[in-house]
Amino acid sequence: MKTILAVLAALFLVAGCSSDGNDGAAPPPRQGWVEDDVSFTADGLTIYGTYRHLVDAPPGPAALLISESGNTDRNGDNAVAGPVGNMRQLAEYLSGKGISTMRYDKVGTGKTGLGPYALRPAEVGSAVYDLGAKAAVRHLAGLPGTDKARLSVYALGEGTVHAMSLANDKAPDAPKIHSLGLFAPLAGRYLDIITGRVRTGLDADVAAGAKTREQADAVLTTWDATVVQARTTRTAPAKLPEGLGAILNPQNVGAVVEADLIDPLVSAAALPAGMPVLATCSDADSQASCPAEQPLFDALAHTALTVVRLKGVNHVLRDDPTDNVGNYSKKDPLSPQLVAGLDGFVGK
Q1: Which of 93, 268, 323, 343 lies most in the core, judged by the most C-beta atoms within 10 Å?
Q2: pTM score > 0.85 for this model?
Q3: Alpha-carbon distance 118 to 115, whole Å?
């Protein structure tokens, strides 16, 4: 009997106390910078994201953040590299400058998942990502905390292609983009960039004695023929040497060719004259070295361009001269070099 009474007494104690420690009172009002879950649709796909904003603030500057290519979610976390978190860090940095942000899980990532594309994943390509970006910027522009005259887009890697697409969007309902931040942007057609990397890798193998020049040339000839085949017939061989089949294969050739049709130099040249644009390159980033990015910088010459030439900064915008993918998920801060460049840009 005493045991039963003790249990009942404990239950009454639990019931009489609220879990938030406020004795049943309403939670305190939200203050400062908060992160709210948001969702919107793009051609039947529900996309989920995070809106970081100042509570009860009047309309102010806002930025859409677009992550890197592949399975990279709203925070910059990647299925291969792990919990990178660089886009979350960028959102936090921009908060310190009084800028609201929205970042989102692209199709195939995070809470968004594949949605209606689950039964037809081969259809997920550049056009689908572009639709998602267009739906995202429209949603952000429609939020009460957004000053539509101060709407920016910041993107990394392949995401920069979609950022420029938003700035060039002439649709009647397209929000006007005030400025762009292009981090390690694509500086050429997709397959041309891959071909350059294949050639560099083969040259390195020859220099290290891992291959003869004849062996390297044979691999490059096979790859060059594969690129021609993909571009002309939208097909790819079932097998390719040197692991190249992971880059281009019968399953992904449609999406690859779709991405390859976009020329970032053409998109850059079409941006409005005088638009504030920040673009980065790095001597440690094999995907966005400064010499490789120069043609894009030239195509952006008519904009109000700020070029930030980073030293020893990896592809996920942190100090690491090795650019080792294994280090991408380390919880290091964004490179101070990048932050310094942003400090002088965000107010433009």
Answers
A1: 268
A2: yes
A3: 6
Domain co-membership, 227 together with 127: no
Q: For residues 234 and 267, state if they share a domain.
A: no
DSSP calls for 2-69 = HHHHHHHHHHHHHHTS-TTSSTTPPPPPP-SEEEEEEEEEETTEEEEEEEEEETTPPSEEEEEEE--S
Closest CA to 293 of 304, 272, 307, 305: 307
Last residue of a domain, one of 202, 233, 259: 259
Q: Could you tell me how many residues make up the chain?
A: 348
The end-to-end CA distance of the chain, in Å, is: 75
Per DSSP, the three-state class of 117 is helix
Structural domain boundaries enclosing 120? 33-189+262-343
- Count of domains in the chain? 2
pLDDT at residue 210, rounded to an integer? 94
Sites in the chain below the pLDDT cut of 70: 1-24
Q: Which residues contact 317 (CB under 8 A, 6 or more apart)?
A: 86, 90, 156, 183, 184, 280, 334, 335, 338
The angle that helices 159-167 and 126-142 make with each other, rounded to 10 degrees, is: 60
Residue type at 109 in one-letter notation: T
- DSSP readout, 75-100? TS-BTTTB---HHHHHHHHHHTTT-E
Q: What is the dihedral of CA 156, 158, 179, 301, to 10 degrees?
A: 110
Q: What is the pLDDT of residues 271-317, one digit of tens each?
A: 999 999 999 999 999 889 999 999 999 999 999 999 999 999 999 99
In one letter, which amino acid is 300?
L
Alpha helices, H only, the chain: 2-15, 86-95, 126-142, 159-167, 190-208, 213-233, 253-260, 264-269, 290-299, 336-343
